[in-house]
Amino acid sequence: MNPFACLLLLLLQAVATVSASFPFGGWPNQPADEWTGWGGSIFNNRFSPSKDVSSSTFKDINIHCQIPHAGGVSATPTIFNNTAFYPTWNGTFVALDYDKCQITWEINVTAIILTFKRLTPLQTAMLKGPFISGILASRASPQIDRQTNVLYFATQLHALVVALDVRTGAQLCVTQINSHEAALVTLSPTLYEGILYAGVASAEELAAGSVPGYQCCSFVGNVVALKFDRFAWQFKTVWNLDMLPPRYENPKGRSDWSGAGVWGSHPAIDPGRRRVFFSTGNVYTAPEQYLNCTDEQFSPTTAQNTSCLPERVWLNAVLALDLLTGEVAWVKRFGPIDVWNLACGTDGIGAQPSCSWDSGPDYDFGMAPTFVPGKGKDAKDVLTVGQKSGYLYSLDANTGDIIWATATSPGGITGGLSWGIATDDQRPNYGGATVNNSVWGAASLADGRLLWETAAAENFASLTPPTVVGDIVIVGRVKPLGPITSGPGPLVGLAKDAGEVLLEHPLNGTFRGGIAVQDEYVLFGTGYKGKDGYMYVVKTAEGAGYSGYGRKG
């Protein structure tokens, strides 16, 4: 974007800021253990080092405050200077002083999206579709540059990355990272050494079965590295990499390869090798000559790169890229061809099947890997990652080779493992996100053995990524109301070593959000895609005091 346009946006957006009580000077250096982004740290491990939350303190928790939000909240909040930063499904972005239970500032994300560019007919139709809702908003966790006081978040519609002044919410600049009209950012970005790493997915595979007459598909997933210059008021693209071969038009007027979106949790960083790790999803369409490209020798435990697929087709894959150049260090593709979009139909969702091919299983990687330094088999640096197939993997961080693969739960379009796992120095903890009868569990980091599994009570679903802190794992469960809808459910605390249920605390609103832990506080949202909810701030017993509803400051 033109730097003068960014400067103009800064002036306009500052007027729209609800309130701003932070000083204009920089804040003191913050502790390194503040929860950042979706995954909590650059390792994307959903692990908190807090000493204040444990089995002894979590059994007696209190609701410190409960902030109502129309549309609900599912993003994991980012923590900075006793403030939680998060988007809502109603199209706002909020800075909440969680100790005082007061909103410090709040901005209108929907206005940013609509100001950037007028909606196309397809985008307007998607907003009315039964399976695509809430996309005039952000759903990803933000990142904060503590040296420059710049906060970054991404939007769904238009696939924008937005820079704000973290102290006031004043808008600094906006850039688009994929111009396809169905592109969305649902992957939370990662900030490392001043560079923001992000990926793009889309709603196109859903539009294929929900927007009448739509001719699918042409979107191609990509990952980018961006650097924002606060003095020049502009973003610079460090590198940009597509997940599929260069596009070309077939005689029918559509790109043959489409899809391979990048969509869950946030990219992990390997500081030693100077690499960033992403994962990708299925393709929406493929050239006819590859539709039967199955590999009868394929096994999830060996995951060969299927020989009949072009090498440059990175579907259902894990990638390791150089931080500064985007050069590919290695790619590991899991499974043969997987072509799916909503027009293919599925278990009561979408239109009658209208694919001209046998649809694939839709085995995306719905999360980026977790980086675990020096704690894998033979003290290796490893990655852990879950797939919608239900398989949990450990990979050699240097080569991408599979160290172990463990089946944890049924796979499927609405099943398997998505949105993240929580990994400490001994075990990855997971939740199998089936429509109902979900299970939580843990595996040995060394060899993948299942250490325990605990079924969600009352045949409930678990759609909340786990968070590990001290000797407990914090998760949630919801009442299933259908293939894509869910009702209310409780916050759940599990013993990390054996999986026994320590606590279930009832909540208002459907619970599908990520859980952040900071000192004695546990923070998370309820509500989802238009279902109203709250930002909860829970305090453990040792520090519990004030209890009540928050107000805007």
Key features?
7% helix; 553 residues; mainly beta; 5-stranded mixed beta sheet; Methanol Dehydrogenase, Chain A; 5 helices
Tell me the fraction of residues in β-strands, as a range: 25-35%
Determine the number of helices (DSSP H or I, runs of at least 4 residues): 5
Number of domains: 1
Taking pLDDT < 50 over at least 5 consecutive residues as the criterion, the unreliable ranges are 11-31, 544-553
Give the CATH superfamily: Quinoprotein alcohol dehydrogenase-like superfamily
The whole-angstrom Rg is 22 Å
The coarse silhouette is globular
User: What is the CATH domain class?
Assistant: Mainly Beta
Number of strands: 37
What is the strand arrangement across the widest sheet? Answer: 1-30-31-32-33
The residue-averaged pLDDT reads 87
Helix proportion of residues, in percent?
under 10%
CATH topology: Methanol Dehydrogenase, Chain A
